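Inputs:
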Amino acid sequence: MAQERLYLYPVWLRLWHLINALLCLILIITGISMQLSTPSVVLVGFNTAVTIHNIAGIILTINYLLFFIGNLFTYNGKHYQIEFRGLIKRLITQVKYYTFGIFKGETPPFPITRENKFNPLQRFSYVFIMYLFVPIVFITGWALLYPITIPTTLIGTSGLHLTDLLHIIAGYIISIFMVIHIYFCTIGKSPLSNFKSMIDGYHEPH
Amino acid sequence: MREIYIRPSWLVIMLILFTVIVFAFDYSAEPLKYEDTGQNNQIAPEEQAIDLTQFPNSEENQKCFKCHGQSKYSYENTEQGRMVNEQMYSELIISPNDFYLSNHRSFKCLDCHSEEYENFPHAGILRMEYQYTCMDCHEGDEIYEKYHFEDINSEYKKSVHAEKLSEEFTCWTCHNPHTYKINARTNENIRETIIYDNTICLDCHSNYRRFQVLTDRERPNLITSHGWLPNQELHIASVRCIECHTEKTSDSALVEHNVLPKEKAVRNCKECHSTNPRLLASLYQYEAQELRSHEGFFQGITTSDSMVIGANRNYLLNIISLLLFAGVIAGIAFHSVLRIIKK
Ligand code: HEM
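Outputs:
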């Protein structure tokens, strides 16, 4: 049964994901170069970095709508619903597999099916990133684009710096996610097969 | 068994709603009027109910304040034998409240002004009276050493104010001796300090009536001349004019007095939005040190080192983030090596 190729990644999703990945890379590079800018050393010129970062952020938000609406109205959204009962247990099982089982050649505890394309860790982290941190990043990002709208003081400190801090922490978490995400995508039939899936839409079974 | 699912889309909608609600409230203080000719930018004097009779020279000074303390004064016209009410020129009004909150509150008016002023009408020749400057009293005085009056004076002498303007421009032009109150050193609210300091500049630079006394030049429109600056309004409320229009040359004075020609003003974003911002070298350095010494952890993270967008140089957060990143990379390396070996 697990031998057939599964069509798991519809065109709109692959399109969203490609744009999203490229934009995230751009945002991370320009973001870091603004963060670490000094008057003398130039990674990307400050003004250029600001402009690129702003434009990329705006496109990212529009692109996010594609993801959001797509998941709201198509079957793909099912994969992002978290069932709380037994969640911790499932997460632990998956962690155990990644820390021990995988090296002993065990089969994955949650085989990929049409109804369940993510393992518990994937589901959990994708939901957290896509429905919490990415929204935090673009909401605070838009606020920083119009800083005059930000309340001067929030919970006793400068609203601007609080917004900035949230933006940077969320951006940092997304960057860390991206590194881990890409690494875990190499765990497939072959190290490259998952990346191929994200191009042609078909999942190669183990 | 019924399964409990949560639809994550709600989370996004709630986040957006939450932001809208937080942003809908206006918590900000009265914004600084930036380009507003004719109107003075004075911050409202503190409405502190002070007992005006408690000061050493209250009684003496009251003789002057009787007329100069408000906008109306009365005297008897002896020629016509009737009482006259007249309006006091706004420039000659000294609010007793402001005076007694100021640094010079223990003075007698007649300490600096001629005793002849006790007579009314004041003699015309009194207009020619010598006006003391800061240096007349404060120069070489040990008590005032920490304020570095001498440095301020020599820095001021190099400024465009001293070079381009007539002798009309004195310390008093910015620091009215009647109301001057030391601010940056005593005020913990950085925003108030910024407004206080910028108000000093705007008093002339956004007020043609005062500006024209000092020069025949046309007053430049500040909004146009700062047109290149993004988020102008926010910059004006969060940064002192002198931050870009002076150069920090010494650590002695908290406020630089060498105001540079406009061509030399800072125009490079990175001067502030960088890992070594000039802002941190001046006012903010002082404030940040103060804050760090008596504010909690949260306050420390959100304010002290992250004064400027793009320069969130929070030491603790930097270390944590680097360690975390290194940990992730190490974990990935370890995992992939094991994967290759155990294959
Ligand atoms: C160059 C960077 C990236 C590469 C090479 C990459 C690669 C992949 C691959 C191979 C998959 C399919 C495997 C799977 O379903 O788990 C995938 C899925 C996914 N990726 Fe990425 N990714 C990148 C960046 C990102 C970023 C920046 C985000 C989010 C901020 C992201 C979010 C997702 C999500 C949510 C899925 C699941 C999509 C679905 O099937 O509904 N990816 N990625």
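Remarks. The radius of gyration of chain B is 28 Å. Residues 56-119 of chain B form one domain.
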